[in-house]
Write a sequence for this structure.
């Protein structure tokens, strides 16, 4: 039996921390025995418990990250399931969902189970695989959604993230199909015709001045608008990944008001940084969707506050070495924020 | 633009914004002296003897690359050309590794052209040598803007208060972006003309902030009574013609080309006007042969000035033009 006592911590629970203030929090002790909270008084703790003095420190529930890129299998030089787990644990996460855009793609039950097993072998956080919507992320033929759901990995969230499910017919079928087992389709909302692979930043005055190919806000909002209509039509659940624009927020707010089954998320960097960060061509700010102007940042912050977006999460693409050696506009997108979670977090 | 904000000659020339009006004038004054060298029978001065300048061109170029090479050679620098196709970049080497490899050989300057906007900014952070931007993607081409200013000044005098009209594919033009900066610094009034699809994004707020005029009707600009001192026609690249930016080349020419009838009206209404084009030209598309070869055309003067201006830039960056500026430019 292993026991831990956390003494005199300021505990936030039940309320999202971003909405709490010091009046909601109470200082108390927490006793944990074999991974289960057993008491809130240190005096009742087992005598051999490991004691952590948390006076002046904050105790929070473990974070769940709905959207991470662990890169294993295929790009173990950039990130592995275990190195990602370590970063997540340092940042206060206890569960992370791993996106399917690996090599090979997570589009079969076997692939999903392998990720689950690698996460368990590492043993730091719960690693839950997300399945691909379409085979090979090609956007054409549905992946084995049901088999992934029946597997030991119990996959319920499906996403072609990194690619948008462009074809309206395929998106419709996916939303219909996952209804039978309560699945959800997480969409990377990027209209490929309006924002192709060359688009590397927000389309606006700054991209105009810098001569960088931009992607307009409408490339996000037209897909969100289509998908919420498809969700209404099919009764399926759609989740909008990494919303970055005021237009996108507006559509989601409208859809929720209609009772459409839609949820959405926003990343810390889209809450904290604006397009201004691009002016020095530092590739660290190249993320997809791109950083947006301050009006959009204000809109996604407001949406988080009013509950339009109920989750938040960082995009995780640890980029080590080689990808930083190429020009910004041709570099792969990505941003590592787990370890910096709280400092960059506006409250 | 006041003396309070005066800059010193930068280590790298990545953007026209590295300069100010005084520095541009210094560079253009020196270019005038260099042009004297260009006119000599024996075109060789020892200024950069023992210096090594690498022209690293990942994109095709005729005039920029050869004029940088000639500029270096006439000033006795050792100049070497490396092209993307003939370098390790074609074997998959990263840009950073390529430039650090060249830098490790102890060269003095890299003149770089690259298809990615911002590539030269990044290179400048990776190496010790001077970096000169010879065109980065659709971002900037600062020496082109300097030679444009030089050429126009030679013909129409100080550019302060002069009205320069820039026409063409502005969204994809690095020449436009650099010229906008330099012409503003020199006090010119600027009007840009293109269909909305060929305007850079955010152009309305940009124009408001920086004080230039945006127009979509070339004929209206040419006949609205506001005198035009220079007309800069920019290239429309072939890949844009099929990219859906405008319906057909014919329609573009009718709306925005410097056709023979438009040339006649231009020269009649604006006597003394000059016509520039950075090349290479699409004769018959954005500029007619009549306009390109007219008395108003400065196109070959621009090419000639290109060598002198690049000599001046190499001189000031590599041979310490700073001392000279310290005496004359500090006021």
């Amino acid at each position: 039996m292993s026991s831990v006592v956390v003494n005199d911590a300021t505990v936030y629970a039940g309320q999202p921390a971003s909405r709490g203030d010091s009046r909601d929090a109470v200082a108390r002790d927490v006793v944990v025995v074999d991974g289960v909270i057993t008491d809130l008084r240190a005096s009742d703790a087992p005598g051999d418990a490991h004691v952590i003095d948390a006076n002046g420190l904050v105790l929070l529930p473990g974070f769940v990250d709905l959207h991470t890129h662990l890169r294993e299998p295929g790009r173990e030089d950039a990130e592995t399931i275990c190195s990602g787990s370590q970063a997540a644990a340092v940042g206060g996460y206890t569960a992370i969902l791993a996106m399917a855009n690996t090599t090979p793609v997570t589009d079969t039950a076997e692939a999903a189970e392998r990720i689950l097993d690698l996460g368990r072998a590492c043993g730091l956080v719960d690693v839950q695989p997300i399945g691909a919507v379409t085979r090979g992320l090609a956007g054409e033929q549905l992946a084995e959604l049901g088999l992934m759901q029946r597997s030991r990995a119990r996959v319920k969230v499906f996403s072609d993230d990194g690619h948008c499910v462009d074809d309206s017919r395929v998106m419709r079928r996916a939303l219909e199909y996952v209804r039978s087992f309560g699945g959800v389709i997480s969409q990377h909302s990027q209209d490929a015709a309006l924002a192709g692979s060359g688009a590397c930043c927000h389309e606006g005055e700054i991209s105009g001045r810098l001569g960088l190919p931009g992607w307009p806000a409408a490339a996000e909002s037209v897909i969100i608008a289509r998908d919420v209509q498809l969700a209404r039509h099919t009764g399926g659940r759609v989740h909008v990944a990494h919303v970055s624009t005021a237009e996108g927020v507006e559509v989601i707010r409208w859809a929720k008001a209609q009772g459409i089954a839609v949820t959405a998320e926003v990343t810390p960097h889209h809450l904290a940084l604006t397009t201004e960060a691009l002016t020095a061509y530092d590739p660290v700010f190249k993320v997809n969707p791109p950083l947006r102007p301050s009006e959009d940042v204000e809109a996604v912050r407001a949406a988080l506050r009013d509950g339009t977006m109920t989750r938040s999460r960082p995009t995780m693409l640890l980029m080590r070495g080689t990808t930083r050696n190429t020009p910004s506009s041709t570099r792969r997108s990505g941003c590592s924020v787990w370890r910096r979670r709280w400092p960059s977090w506006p409250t | 633009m006041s003396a309070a904000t005066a800059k010193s000659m930068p280590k790298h020339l990545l953007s026209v914004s590295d300069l100010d009006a005084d520095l541009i004038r210094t560079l253009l004054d020196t270019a005038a002296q260099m042009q004297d060298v260009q006119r000599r029978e024996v075109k060789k001065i020892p200024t950069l003897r023992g210096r090594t300048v690498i022209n690293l061109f990942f994109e095709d170029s005729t005039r920029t690359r050869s004029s940088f090479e000639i500029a270096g050679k006439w000033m006795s620098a050792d100049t070497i050309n490396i092209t993307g196709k003939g370098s390790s970049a074609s074997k998959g080497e990263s840009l950073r590794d390529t430039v650090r490899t060249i830098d490790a050989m102890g060269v003095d300057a890299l003149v770089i052209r690259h298809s990615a906007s911002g590539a030269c900014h990044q290179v400048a952070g990776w190496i010790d040598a001077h970096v000169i931007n010879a065109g980065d993607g659709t971002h900037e081409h600062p020496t082109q803007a300097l030679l444009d200013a030089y050429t126009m000044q030679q013909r129409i005098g100080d550019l302060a208060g002069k009205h320069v009209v820039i026409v063409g594919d502005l969204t994809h033009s690095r020449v436009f972006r650099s010229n906008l900066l330099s012409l503003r610094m020199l006090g010119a009034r600027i009007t840009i003309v293109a269909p909305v699809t060929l305007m850079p994004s955010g152009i309305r707020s940009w124009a408001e902030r920086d004080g230039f005029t945006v127009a979509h009707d070339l004929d209206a600009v040419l006949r609205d009574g506001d005198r035009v001192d220079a007309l800069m026609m920019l290239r429309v690249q072939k890949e844009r013609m099929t990219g859906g930016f405008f319906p057909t080349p014919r329609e573009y020419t009718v709306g925005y080309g410097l056709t023979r009838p438009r040339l006649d009206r231009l020269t009649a209404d604006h006597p003394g006007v000059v016509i520039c084009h950075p090349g290479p030209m699409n004769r018959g598309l954005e500029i007619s042969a009549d306009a390109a070869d007219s008395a108003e055309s400065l196109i070959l003067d621009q090419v000639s000035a290109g060598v002198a201006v690049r000599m001046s830039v190499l001189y000031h960056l590599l041979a310490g033009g700073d001392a000279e500026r310290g005496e004359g430019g500090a006021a």
About this structure: Chain B touches chain A at residues 94-97, 114, 116-119, 121-122, 136-140, 171, 174, 177, 200-203, 205-206, 209 (CB under 8 Å).
